[in-house]
What does this fold into?
Amino acid sequence: MKNRWDTELAKKFAAESELGLRVYSSNLLGADPDLVLHGGGNTSVKGEVKDVFGQLQKVLFVKGSGWDLRTIEEQGFPPVRLDYLQRLGALDSLSDSEMMRQLRLALLDPSGPTPSVEAILHALIPHKYVDHTHADAVVTISNSPNGEQILWELYGEEVLILPYIMPGFILARQVAAATSDLDWSSIRGIILLHHGIFTFDDDARASYDAMIELVDRAEQFLQEHASTAVSCAAVAGTECDLLTLAAMRKAAGAQFGGPVLARFDHAEEAAGFAMRDNAGELATRGPLTPDHTIHCKAFAARLGADPVSDLEDFAAIYRRYFDEFSTTNHQCLDTMPRYAVWQGKGMVYFAANHQRLQIVEDISSHTIRAIQQAEALGGWQALPRSDLFEVEHWELEQAKLKAGNKRGKFEGQVALVSGAASGIGKACVEALRKQGAVVAALDIAPEILSASNDPALLPLQCDVTCTEAIREAVARVVCKFGGIDLLVSNAGNFPASASLGQLDDKTWQQSLDLNLSSHMKLLRACLPFLELGFKPAVIMVGSKNVPAPGPGAAAYSTAKAGLTQLARVAALELGASGIRVNTVHPNAVYDTALWNDEVLAQRAAHYGKSVEDYRKSNVLRTELNSADVANSIVALLGDEFAKTTGEQIAIDGGNDRVI
It folds into this structure.
């Protein structure tokens, strides 16, 4: 466990504001995934603020809901009246929903984020700074048969060790009861078995140092007693595995109630764990910490030779689990697992969107490492399912469920766009991302690889005229996202103008290869996955030259006409599989690679017009750009055109020759 404290940097943070050090040390804790994962943990600092009457109020600045310690800023610590929280902590009982209502009432700034569910506990700890993490090493040890004894031997009287209890008010009451006669200066931390660790001090660095030192002892213990526990293996994915993955994704979506993403992980640690004979059974015992159930459910799925059937089995097991522990106040969650052990192959993750998928993957990787380390200590012992159920179906989480979550238009869907480095293709990528889709962006131009740092965007340099390159690209897309639902086949170029008498074989063939044949090859490669997709749809990007060709453009016009005919045949063939295929015919889109200022000036002069008039030389007297075309394409891909296939749509502001 590395101590990341930088004295000079800490001074800069401290000089910026009263909360500077609280922000700084929180960011340090959040930067280490072995301490904090995806919104886990919480921190606070006690201080004073002046109210509207000019009076000083003692407050607790505590991490607010929705903030992550890794990136939290000053506004992520809403000030809460300290005396109010301490009085709440003295109550005999308080429901979770009422507690959250009272926390909102205790805010000095009603527009601030809702305080952490652990705010009352932070208020009861009589130190200025309080840090709380779900440190992997500490929780891993507590999840073994002799975990509590090992922790006592590691920490002695320095740390108060308490049995697991639900987070929130009842945890605050447990700590209050256990420390009623305690000299707080005699301990450096509190360990909550199966949950995490608190450290505290009146100095920010001292509290942080205590966290690092105490967790480091646990890590050193695991290094000494479980250093070889984590298995690694090399397993390569196959085309058959990818088709099975797409089928699993489809089945998981049926259990979830809408489109989802899936990811196959056959990296060394994931594959090594999946190679264990009892991997499936181990993964069903429970999570690393009960907080993870909110993201990943209380247990994983086991997948074998027939993984789609195994997903159905998981749904039945999950329903029995719900029936066993639920009351009339509980609403059953979806029956889709969030992660699964694919025996002998690797791990599979399922989620509603890319952000959730990444959370599931990260939690899974930490969990399977902890499971194997705990096995080396005598066996993995997570909390009983009754306790896990309480957290997974927590009153606060159920309230969110009943409120409903609005999903993006294409959330959970996977789009592939070719010719994505510029112009219409790039605009389609941006439009689809804004609507919630994950997107694979293909282009032969190397700049595609540095086009964006969006984690939900997969940029791939690919020559779409090469069958093998397409196959490899599609395989990467499916492995990362689980399938393909939406295809925007856009790659193309406009050859230099040449009359038929001047047209050479090379130019003719190159236009056919890129503007026609590549689209067939890409559609062919995507087709098995489109057949297993959610609301699958294809858009072919044609040209105005199809209905209204011009002289000197035989190579381009013929290829685009062939592409349009290909789309019509595809619509006829694929309709029975529910795959819609439509074509758009853009024209005069001047922010693409086909145009520049010099060419525009030449074309405008040729027609005796100003550049501005030339840009708007259409029936509607409007100027088109790539985003206009992309918006039309996205509309055609969506539910608004769910009953439309085999159509050709002009996006040109109205062309008199076409009309």
